[in-house]
Amino acid sequence: MKCIAVYTSSFEMFSDIYEQVIKTPLKENEEKVIEGITVSESGEVPQNYIDKMKTKPEVVVMKVKDSDITILQHRDVFEIFLPENEKVVMS
Hints:
Radius of gyration: 12 Å
Shape: globular
Distance between the termini: 14 Å
Number of helices: 2
Structural class: alpha+beta
Number of strands: 6
Order of helices and strands: EHEEHEEE
Organism: Paenibacillus aestuarii
Protein name: NAD/NADP transhydrogenase alpha subunit
Strand order of the largest sheet: 2-3-1-6-5-4
Largest sheet: 6 strands, antiparallel
């Protein structure tokens, strides 16, 4: 799964820019600033990383309705996991 990291601890800020983030084309390891928040394409992440993170009590797990997108929030970062077949603009 592809991972996009969004560096903020504010759920409100994250949800305000979420749609823009997943529509922004990013190359691997590329960073962009969207509305003052740093967003980074973190490359491929194995499923076992996601499964391991889901078991930690300090990690909030969110699923996007009607898609296979998973979002993990921990500390000051939201990680958006996009399956390869998800129709998102990516480079």
